[in-house]
Specification:
- The protein is α/β, with parallel strands linked by helices.
- It has 2 domains: 8-22 and 102-264, Rossmann fold (3-Layer(aba) Sandwich), CATH 3.40.50.1000; 24-100, DNA polymerase, domain 1 (Orthogonal Bundle).
- It is built from 12 helices and 6 strands.
- The chain has helices at residues 23-35, 42-46, 53-62, 64-74, 80-97, 108-117, 130-140, 164-173, 188-197, 215-220, 223-239, 256-264; strands spanning 8-12, 121-126, 149-152, 181-185, 200-204, 244-246.
- α1 packs across α5 (80-97) and α3 (53-62) packs across α5 (80-97).
- The protein starts with 7 loop residues before the first strand and ends in a 5-residue tail after the last helix.
Length: 269
């Protein structure tokens, strides 16, 4: 069995490494439902974030208020055929706006450089489909974001919170045991997928979906309100199984010394 030391970091995309506030998917879901005569809020759109996008649509149709509005508008709940059609409609909506939300979150580039310096491999995972993943990676690459591999929900039997994207990342890069892997994400399914994979799971709050604020909005938020929201997000992420919770991906490096110390003592996630 290989020595248990950190060898691989698995990172989410929107809200963790790109797209501060995870704005691209939220906006696309709002527009999708608007086209079907249903207005949904930012908070509602963000609720199932982290899931594979078709499953995200399914979960939105199950939100009691949205389900009631849909029934009033259309006379019956959407069946599987309708969900498939909505997902097909969602894909070009999402793909079209992704280039506008592919900017790296502050601190990501130097953090990646430090990981490379330490010989740690990097894998990207996402609830986007393959087409969406490739668009994000294409626009992030010139900024210096070049993971060793990237996987989406359609590449594996099931998306988050299942562990399969984490395992596929490990398999493709030849990394094991799970204790040698650190998973970063800004949603509860991200955290749960890391927990379910048996790896170290780090939740990201300020830059991601848990706050759902752009960088400018976050900077303008009163300090006491920011503290309240961060505290609530951290509580939710720890309840979901996060070993650590940080403001941003860059802040996660501070956790590595503790992880290495725990590994040296024989602890495992």
């Amino acid at each position: 069995m290989p020595t248990a030391t950190i060898k691989l970091v698995v990172v989410d995309l929107a809200g963790t490494t790109v797209d501060y506030g995870s704005c691209a998917p939220a906006g696309a879901f709002i527009e999708l439902f608007r086209r079907h005569g249903i207005d949904i809020s930012q908070e509602e759109a963000r609720g199932p974030m982290g899931l594979q996008k078709r499953e995200h649509i399914v979960e939105l149709t199950r939100v009691p208020r949205i389900a009631k509005a849909w029934l009033a508008k259309h006379g019956s709940a959407p069946d599987e055929t309708k969900i498939d059609a909505m997902y097909a409609e969602f894909i070009p909506l999402q793909v079209k706006i992704l280039p506008d939300f592919a900017g790296l979150i502050p601190g990501v580039l130097p953090t990646l450089a430090e990981l490379r310096k330490r010989g740690i491999k990097i894998a990207a995972t996402t609830g986007y489909n393959r087409e969406m993943l490739e668009v994000v990676l294409k626009h992030a690459a010139p900024q210096g974001f070049l993971p060793d591999t990237g996987w989406c929900a359609e590449d594996v039997p099931a998306g988050r919170p299942a562990p399969w994207m984490v395992y596929r990342s490990m398999e493709s890069l030849g990394v094991f045991p799970p204790a040698a892997v650190v998973n970063f994400g800004d949603t509860l399914p991200d955290v749960e997928s890391g927990k379910n994979a048996g790896v170290w799971s780090i939740g990201v709050t300020r830059s991601g979906n848990m706050l759902g604020l752009t960088e400018q909005e976050a900077a303008a938020l009163p300090a006491d309100e920011m503290k309240r929201r961060i505290t609530a997000a951290e509580k939710s992420m720890r309840a979901a199984g996060a070993h650590y919770v940080v403001d941003s991906f860059a802040d996660g490096l501070a956790c590595f010394a503790d992880i290495e110390a725990r590994l040296a003592r024989g602890e495992r996630p």
